[in-house]
Amino acid sequence: MDTAVRVRGLTKRYGDVQAVGGIDLDIHAGEVFAILGPNGAGKSTTVEIMEGHRTRDAGEVSVLGVDPGKPTRAWRSRIGIVLQTANDVAEATVRETVRHFAGYYPGGKDPDEVIEQVGLTAKADQRIRKLSGGQRRRVDVALGVIGDPELLFLDEPTTGFDPEARRQFWELIGGLARGGTTIVLTTHYLDEAEALADRVAVVSGGRIVAEGEPETLGGRATAKALVSWSEAGERRSLETDTPTRTVLELTAHFDGEVPELAVTRPTLEDVYLRLIETPA
Ligand SMILES: Nc1ncnc2c1ncn2[C@@H]1O[C@H](COP(=O)(O)OP(=O)(O)OP(=O)(O)O)[C@@H](O)[C@H]1O
């Protein structure tokens, strides 16, 4: 498998703050990789170093085979970056803005197609200033993909989106991924990571504390199940390795339907919260 991003021993310090304290990372070409972690964990610093927007103190970084500390124009054109909302083009319309950015990428996508892809066709002639927060974010995404990048960085892409807009955005990202674009995103939404990411890394205190597929992260798939039900007006629950047996026993006990029966495993959020509680 081709490697899109390779990071070894990355460190970055701001004065007294060790923002990144030795990160190793491999992101494969074509995968969607999510970086999770609490505020101040070092996610943005790591991603901005990969983007070539921040210097590093030590370590090796290779992005599409190039050291982002020595970026070339050709390399930049292969990378898309969705930053937090840019307000400087607020007076222009959606179409004018997307067309303007398309001009930087001779081999890029058709502006109207991209506007359609991000669901802004009906707003194409509206000034960006008059869009809602979520709609502006879609413009940011349009600008990130207009150059048809091989690798797309998304920093907290759906902050401010309503639930429907988030779903549409997930579909957009899923479509880009199916088309072969490698995607690196940071997010605070665990359901977003679960819906989109092939693999996730949890960063805490400038280090990776866990890495893997969202379904199995932190032993999630093999964790004990929680069986819960109602009895004599009270909620009862039991943690068990053999939930099927527990349910059979409960069925016998109640001689049929178990009132308000639920069987659950830890969610990605449960696992995540446990991981960031434990110092690396
Ligand atoms: N330019 C800077 N100067 C000084 N300290 C900084 C700078 N940028 C980040 N830091 C510090 O480095 C640490 C990591 O910050 P970073 O922005 O990488 O975290 P993050 O995981 O992206 O957080 P968030 O989820 O809040 O965006 C924090 O303690 C932050 O205060």
UniProtKB/TrEMBL annotation:
* Classification via CDD domains: ABC_DR_subfamily_A (cd03230)
Q: Name one Pfam family in it.
A: ABC_tran
Swiss-Prot/TrEMBL keywords: Antibiotic resistance, ATP-binding, Nucleotide-binding, Transport
Kindly give the SUPFAM superfamilies that the UniProt entry links to this protein. P-loop containing nucleoside triphosphate hydrolases
Give one GO molecular function term. Answer: ATP binding
Where do the ABC transporter domain residues begin and end?
Answer: 5-230
UniProt subcellular location: Cell membrane
Membrane topology of this protein: Peripheral membrane protein
UniProt xrefs under PANTHER family:
ABC TRANSPORTER ATP-BINDING PROTEIN
Name this protein carries in UniProt? ABC transporter ATP-binding protein
The upper taxonomy is:
Bacteria, Bacillati, Actinomycetota, Actinomycetes, Streptosporangiales
